[in-house]
Amino acid sequence: MDFSLFESVLEESQIISGDGLKVRYHHIWHMDQPLKALCLLLPETTEEVSNIMKICYENDLPVVVHGGLTNLVGSTETDGHEVVISTERLNNIEEIDTSSRTMTVQAGVILENIHEAAASADLLFPLNFGARGSAQIGGIISTNAGGLRVLKYGMTRQLILGLEAVMADGSIISSMKKIIKDNSAYDVKQLFIGSEGTLGIVTKAILKLEEAPNSRNAAYIGFNDYHKVVTFLKYMDSNLAGKLSGFELIWRNSYVQMTSVSDAVRPPLPYEYNYYVLIEALGSHPQNDQIEFQVLLENAIEKEQVLDAVMAQSPSDVEWFFRIREDVNNLVDFMKHDQHFDISLPIPLIGQYIADRYKSLSQIEGVEQVFAFGHVADGNIHFMVGKTNLSPELKKQIDHCIYDGLKEMGGSVSAEHGIGTHKKDYLKLCRSIEEITLMKSIKSIMDPKSLLNPGKIF
Amino acid sequence: MDFSLFESVLEESQIISGDGLKVRYHHIWHMDQPLKALCLLLPETTEEVSNIMKICYENDLPVVVHGGLTNLVGSTETDGHEVVISTERLNNIEEIDTSSRTMTVQAGVILENIHEAAASADLLFPLNFGARGSAQIGGIISTNAGGLRVLKYGMTRQLILGLEAVMADGSIISSMKKIIKDNSAYDVKQLFIGSEGTLGIVTKAILKLEEAPNSRNAAYIGFNDYHKVVTFLKYMDSNLAGKLSGFELIWRNSYVQMTSVSDAVRPPLPYEYNYYVLIEALGSHPQNDQIEFQVLLENAIEKEQVLDAVMAQSPSDVEWFFRIREDVNNLVDFMKHDQHFDISLPIPLIGQYIADRYKSLSQIEGVEQVFAFGHVADGNIHFMVGKTNLSPELKKQIDHCIYDGLKEMGGSVSAEHGIGTHKKDYLKLCRSIEEITLMKSIKSIMDPKSLLNPGKIF
Hints:
The structure is a homodimer of 458-residue chains.
Chain A: H1 4-7, E1 15-16, E2 39-41, H2 46-58, E3 63-66, E4 83-86, E5 93-97, E6 102-106, H3 111-120, E7 123-124, H4 137-142, H5 150-153, E8 160-166, E9 172-175, H6 189-192, E10 201-208, E11 210-211, E12 215-223, H7 226-240, E13 244-251, H8 252-258, E14 275-283, H9 286-302, E15 308-311, H10 315-326, H11 329-332, E16 337-344, H12 350-362, E17 367-375, E18 380-387, H13 392-403, H14 406-409, H15 433-446
Parallel strand pairs in A: 2-4, 3-4
Antiparallel strand pairs in A: 1-2, 5-6, 6-10, 7-11, 8-9, 8-10, 12-14, 12-15, 13-14, 13-17, 16-18, 17-18
Helix pairs in contact in A: 7-9
């Protein structure tokens, strides 16, 4: 390939090829696999991304965009024949507007940096998940990331006010507005959110910020019956009136494993319950909020809604409680090979569904461990399945065991990670022929040459 | 036209034509204008809507869908050559799921009935606006309605979990899921939300419900400086930590008029301030919430953040406070002819922008009154302009006076009502050529014969 094409629009230092690619990675969790690509480009402005795409469009070059590479479903995989555009130098926080409560950012800004910048203005960007130190906002938007506070603040889609993207032909589509309400015709920015880079390249966004909370309370609660978990969710959400921000469920065996590896993740509650819930509330009055939270838990115990509860007594307790839930490596490290899932289904059906899956997975030869945990208030459960080998047959057997009942239940094969390459075969299990046909027509008009993130989703 | 076409898919009583149309209306606020249409059809199921559309597609018949007709921007207007599909018999509430906190409804269910059904299950459908007694959920979804509680709960888009729509060719596209998180490829339901019936006909939806609040507090607050309004918004939002649900701003002259016509809308505060804010908070602990709300207001007065405040002391006070804001007829009745606006712009720019518009509107001959008020926390201001005559020149002059500065400010010509026919000429003032081009390509693949709500938006 003739890289001089790109030299007309980029500096030499922004074009990496040949041996330079060897220190680049395919996947942030598999750093042993070097990047396979024609070249990697490092644009610093939207115009540069636009110029790159004009060249790619003219020359029929397929393009994959790399942000933090934390997607987990193969959304950023390459075959070697693609131009990779890295957003790492698109890393400016352009503005924080404290009155509009917005932040204007380029696509490559890392989530943790957004958190810090917001906090420095007494504001909060509420989106939060384990990969916050690597995930970039462009990728977060392209995958409509969820995480730990969707219950209170919504998914990424709810937090994007303005958006700018570069289309396949290099044209720039910009709607950089700070306003919450804009019903002037179709909300086309929705198309770029959650489409995994297959419809356009997100280059800039205006994020919706919230007033920073002053109090944070957390607790672990033990249950034996799933239906009591659902009743407790309603009880806490109703009584905390907007302050309940997290409601995570961990199945007993996952909790045991998550709390066994070090003192930093020691168990807050004993190992005698079937279900462990981690709840979080964000408020504005530290003293009152703590008392209110505690009284609600005491009442729940008294009324036998819950079996046991332990409340974080300090910020470091809160950190301890969350580390247990967030450090999934404590599960992964324990497995020979791992296969993970990210399903969603209606909240009342989750208990029975997971119980059934534990049973049927245990009957598959080659399955060694099954760990379930997740954002139960969002109907989103993560599964990690440990297995003895990487055979495609075993993978398929496990996939089918997890996915096969979902369609009838109105569930989804991907609550938050997306389809990428890993779940392509299962898309039809949760979307109808009519939906997929419509998606493909949209893809065909927005990316007529199929250059954007080829081979992903469909 | 040969109505027997439709007799193959509907009962005779579901087809209205000729004289039958005379008792039907063009617009709910102009009940003197009878409906002009080829015929009006009254389907009772999604399948009937689908069958109607198959016939219309086959025979190139344009279609306009009529719900509650409260859109205000000509979105449901007809010329006389269209088939009108009324959703009024699609009025079943199919299910309330208290654990999933969802309600499944057909498109013709009226918002107020949704409110009542949710309340009967101790839940809340938070969307709320003046036309709730007429507006139907299908139209609400098609226009992405906003209203009085967007600040806390979001616009309609944020409250729709599942959606079913009939496409131009009669095919049914269904994604009736109760789940909050579904990242399985493109979220195509977003296309039907806010596209004013031009891309498909919404027939069914699954609504996201919230736990019902137990306390409701409200107050009027007086200010002379706009920037203090913004500071107060941040102060209350920060301190109420998720409980602040409404923050409405009324300019002095609008407040005077709104509180002058009867004892039911008597003024809660005297006429001496430049700005009046109506705030609402929804919580779960009546006694504590009232004390907290009061203390916050007292502190604001003490710190001279606000000049005056009066708090509702009873549910009937709350009703009184809201009646003032909601009964816009108290403004309309006062005008010879009215022209209304529904703009949005970044919150910090609103004060100066509106002040400038008051000045320049007053210099237009034929303008008699100018009233501004709106959902300031959402950056959304409504203007009502009273005028002496209906000349197109005067209308245009007023339109330009309101819209001309918006583009540079990152504003929108429609925050919540939509484009319809009334704002078509101004769409380009807030959307780029690239955005409009993309919208038109989407329209062309989803409605290739341009049969759905023809002449609207573009």
